[in-house]
Amino acid sequence: MFHEGYGGELADKLKFGFYWGASCGGCEIAVLDTNEKILDIVAKADIVLWPVAMDAKYSDVCSMPDRFMDVCFFNGAVRNSEQAEMARLLRKKSKTLIAFGACAHLGGIPALANMHNRKEIYETLYLNEPSVENPQKTLPRTKSMVKEGELTLPRFFNHVYPLDQVVPVDYYIPGCPPPVPVILKAMDLIFEDQLPSKGTVLAPVKTLCDECPRNKNVAKKMTDIKRTWEIEADPEKCFLEQGIICMGPVTRAGCECRCINANQPCTGCMGPAPEVRDQGAKMISALASILKVDEEKDLSEEEIIALLKKVKDPVGSFYMFGLGSATINQRREK
Predict the structure, then answer these.
(1) What torsion, rounded to 10 degrees, do the Cα atoms 263, 175, 25, 169 define?
(2) Four-residue CA torsion sign, 266, 267, 271, 276
(3) What average pLDDT does the segment 246-270 reach?
(4) Nearest to 92, CA basis, from 162, 166, 153, 22
(5) DSSP readout, 8-62?
(6) Looking at residues 258-273, what average pLDDT do you find?
(7) Dihedral angle, C-alpha 51, 26, 169, 272, nearest 10 °
């Protein structure tokens, strides 16, 4: 297969772009975590945009013909106007746009800020933070005049958005960061021209519990709720049975149980399992069904509420990565 090159010439390699919005940069490193496999990738694709690894200017992207890149991997959520503008521009310059990683997929950890609006965030960071001295109460502005002229900053949005709430997205590669096997499988689908229908999450169609070595297929019961530092977790036993919240039952598989193998519970970075609409709500429902004192007696509603109050950070526990796309977030905005 031949693809038209930048100057109109024919090229036998695909053209890839990588870009990041509101994110930590871990997704960029995940690409390099493919190790020697990166050589196989660049043998079949030219990377024409990758700001973290190569110099690129906004004007360079603007000068690209529309649909110039075969695939653009956009990681990070959309927090400000610059990121939204780049998302729209890269959508225009790409044949296929992939939300790469939890932040682009669901909003990720940056979207936890959706519990507060811009005014509250500014006041906390610039006025009320104990380590900040700001007697003039100066807050960020999109425009400021200095002797050299006018300076501009991107507009800080009131909310953090997943990529598909800003532009149409073709595919999703989940994870924080995306697991290397999932990345390599997606690359194979791209190079073999075998991508599924648009809108597909390019990860296994099963839950984390389905591949978890601790899942012994026994009826689970949870008699208490504990935080990870309150007990020494048994590395052979299901976290839920030990009273530790684990998002495995409602989270998509594909991460090779990275956290579980480190004796830490799943926090849900691979996003909702197939057929799950709201990851956090589904997990709360799952907890309610396994909270029991013993097999003979179900907890009363009051006892369940008392146990759930032991969850000190409900949003962080159930929506660590998915608040930006969660139903509860959409209702809060309304």
Answers:
(1) -170
(2) positive
(3) 96
(4) 166
(5) S-EESSEEEEEEESBS-SHHHHHHHTTTTHHHHHHHHEEEEE-TTTS---HHHHH
(6) 96
(7) 180
| 189 burial type by CB count under 10 A (0-12 exposed, 13-18 middle, 19+ buried) | middle
pLDDT for 293: 59
Residue ranges, comma separated, of all CATH 3.40.50.700 domains in the chain are 3-109+160-191
Q: How far apart are CA 198 and CA 200, in angstroms?
A: 5
| Main-chain phi, psi angles of 164, to 5 degrees | -75, -5
Contact of 98 with 17, CB cutoff 8 Å:
no
Q: What is the CATH topology of the domain spanning 3-109+160-191?
A: Rossmann fold (3.40.50)
Inter-residue contact 203 to 182 (CB < 8 Å) = yes
244 in helix, strand or coil? Answer: strand
Which is higher by pLDDT, 257 or 292?
257
pTM above 0.85, yes or no: yes
Cα distances (angstroms) measured from residue 76 to each of 73, 85, 164, 172, 324:
10, 14, 12, 12, 12
Three-point CA angle 235, 236, 239, nearest 5°: 70
Return the percentage of the chain with pLDDT > 70, whole number: 92
Buried/exposed code over 3-37 (b: 16+ C-beta within 10 A; e: otherwise):
eeeeeeeeeeebbbbbbbbbbbebbbebbeebeee
